[in-house]
Write a structure and sequence with these properties.
CATH superfamily of the largest domain: ATPase, nucleotide binding domain
Number of strands: 13
Helix content: 40-55%
Shape: elongated
Mean pLDDT: 87
Strand content: 25-35%
Distance between the termini: 80 Å
Low-confidence stretches: none
Order of helices and strands: EEEHEEHEEHEHHEEEHEEHHH
Structural class: alpha/beta
Radius of gyration: 29 Å
């Protein structure tokens, strides 16, 4: 959990544009949209300069991603980190944005740990924006896959699974994201480009059929496996579910993005035009997922964080020094008073003796 009381700048990047939001605590103050062109890059650079002291969180909505499940021996510490790095290099050598997400520990045989390995195969859509972030020396905290944030955003619907196999379809600003879950855990996700939030019934039908064929071809499901579908859309694009040629008695749920306006501090109108703000709101509220950014991108933030800690430590040491000095002064004054009292008593005794 991050500090959700401070100011923060949250960005969401896809292959067409960058959506930026400025939050104070968990309240959105303003938002901006920049196209991936010269004018958009200039506007984004000015925004980063304006909020150069704010931590920056970036959400990546990538077209080309890779997901793989893998097992590793149950270890800890340096051994665990070395095994994870070796596996990531085996799967994704040369790729900049990759991570491993712990899933569970097997209960039988060797009791290995199960991980979901993830990487962005083509990061060209990020490079222009990352160049601007680096040029501004912005405090980049992390880069987060939108599919993992979707798992958090829709966790209530996912927790009410009636079947072990589920496909979550989200209509986002520039396309459709389809994510496959097994037993409530993300297995993989794919982005289907589209020009806008507006799409025909046939579009959803075609993409649904493609997803089902892919799952069958990769042996994720059998021909007779019940496959639950959750379709999340803006109110302006809600479709008649009868128009989809679904199998008889197939579990299906249609979610209106505005349903989240009841529990999220975002205006309903904004959610309709930019659903990604819901994913950004999760980060603003303190919820983070696996970080894809490497240490070189995070260096300004880590340096600033270290300076802040050193300042706090220096302040604490100064306070301790003042307290110590006050105690010494008090003790010295107390000792001086005792000496004066003793001297007075001795003088009185001497006077009595001479008398």
């Amino acid at each position: 959990m991050l500090n959700n009381t401070a100011a923060k700048l949250i960005l969401c990047v896809n292959h067409q544009q960058l959506l930026a939001g400025y939050w104070l605590g968990n309240q959105l103050q303003s938002h901006f949209l920049f196209k991936d062109d010269d004018a958009g890059h200039l506007g984004c650079a000015e925004l980063l300069e304006k909020y150069r002291h704010c931590p920056v969180y970036l959400i990546a909505d990538a077209r080309e991603e890779d997901y793989r499940l893998g097992n590793l021996p149950h270890t800890s510490g340096k051994t665990k980190r070395a095994l994870l790095l070796r596996k990531l290099n085996q799967f994704y050598r040369g790729l900049a944005f990759r991570t491993a997400i712990y899933r569970h520990r097997h209960k039988e045989q060797r009791q290995d740990d199960c991980y979901l390995f993830f990487a962005i195969n083509n990061d060209s859509f990020l490079q222009n924006w990352l160049s601007l972030i680096q040029a501004a020396n912005s405090l980049l905290v992390g880069i987060y896959p939108i599919a993992l944030l979707s798992s958090l955003l829709h966790q209530v619907a996912l927790s009410q699974l009636g079947e072990p196999h589920l496909v979550l379809c989200e209509q986002l600003s520039c396309g459709l994201r389809q994510s496959y879950f097994y037993q409530g855990q993300l297995q993989f996700s794919r982005f289907v480009a589209n020009s806008s939030l507006q799409a025909s019934h046939g579009y959803y039908q075609d993409e649904w059929e493609k997803m089902r064929r892919y799952l069958l071809g990769q042996h994720f499901i059998e021909a007779d496996s019940p496959l639950q579908l959750i379709l999340v859309m803006a109110p302006e694009t809600l479709i008649d579910t009868a128009s989809l040629s679904l199998e008889q008695n197939q579990p299906f749920q249609l979610i209106n993005y505005l349903d989240y306006a009841k529990t999220k501090p975002l205006p309903a109108k904004l959610i309709s035009t930019a659903p990604e703000l819901l994913h950004m709101q999760l980060i603003a509220s303190g919820h983070l997922v696996a970080n894809l950014a490497n240490d070189s991108l995070l260096k300004p933030y880590q340096t600033q964080r270290l300076k802040h800690r050193l300042h706090k430590l220096t302040g604490a040491m100064a306070c301790l020094g003042l307290v110590g000095a006050a105690l010494l002064f008090y003790q010295g004054a107390k000792d001086q008073s005792a000496l004066q009292k003793t001297a007075t008593q001795m003088a009185a005794m001497q006077a009595q003796i001479h008398y």
